[in-house]
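Hi P.,

Sorry for the delay on this. The queue was packed all week, but I finally got your sequence through. Input first:
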Amino acid sequence: METVIVDSNRAMVGTSAVIESMSSAVNGKEVADVRFDPTAVVPELVPAVVKSEGVDAAVNGGGEEQEREIVLGRNIHTSSFSVTEPDADDDSTGDKEAYMASVLARYRKTLTDRTKYHLGYPYNLDFDYGALTQLQHFSINNLGDPFIESNYGVHSRQFEVGVLDWFARLWDIEKDEYWGYITNCGTEGNLHGILVGREVFPEGILYASKESHYSIFKAARMYRMECEKVGTLLTGEIDCADFKVKLLANKDKPAIINVNIGTTVKGAVDDLDLVIKTLEDCGFSHDRFYIHCDGALFGLMMPFVKRDTCSSAS
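Then the structure:
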C-alpha cells in the first residue's frame, strides 16, 4: 500500500503502508521606551556544549558507545515585546491600539523589505489570501485522521482529502490505495514517514545519504534509531556502492531507507530502482525493508518530466 503525505511547501511521497508565532501585548506605560529593531544582531549565538558519556550507540550511528557532545539551546532575545494584562479600570485602550497599529505597520515594512531582497530558498512568494478573509473568524481544525469522521465539526477535511486525491492522481495511485494527510511543513512529513518505518521495523536501521535533509537525521535522534549515513556521488545522489557495504555489514537487521526526490542543495534525485536492486542483491527481501521518499524539491515536479526527456538528457 502506498502513501501520499502532502504539505504546503513540499510534496512527500512514501512507498510503503501507509510562527514562529509572534505574540505581543503593549504596556501603555512603556510605549515611549519600546523600539522594534528587526535587524538587531546579538553576538555569541552559539549554544553551550555539554559532554555526555556512554550515549546509546544507536544515536551515534552504530559501533561502541562513545562520548558525544550535546548542544543545548539558549534563551537569547534579539527583540521582544513585554506581555501585560490591562487593568480593570484601564482607560488607555485607544492609545494602545494606536501603538499596536504602528508596531504592526513597521513589522509589515520589515517583511516587505526582506521579501523583496530574499534569495536562496525556494519559497512561493505570490500570496493572495483575499478570498479566504471570510473564513478567518472560525476556529477551523482538521485534527485526527482526515478519512475518519471527527466529533469536531468545524473543519475543512473535504478540501484536505481533495488535495490528497490530486497528489495521488499525480503519482498514478488509485484512490483506495493510499493514505495521507496534509502536514504543516516538510520536516513533519519526513518525521511521520520515518516514524512509520520505525513502527514497521522497530529494530531496523535507518539509511540516508549524507546530503539528505537534516530532518531525516533529526528523526533518527528523536526516535533513538541506529542511523547509517551513506556517501554520495558528485551529483549528490546516494552512492549505492557505499550503500551496499553498509547493508552487508548489517544484514541481520531490517533496512529503513530515505530516498530523495531532489536534495536541498544539489537537487539530486536518488535512483530508486538501483536502491531496490542493491537491497535485493544484499539479500533483503521485500518484507525486510521500508522506503520513505522525501519529495523535497522535485516531488511535485518529477511527475511532469517525461521519461524520454530524461533519457535523451542523460
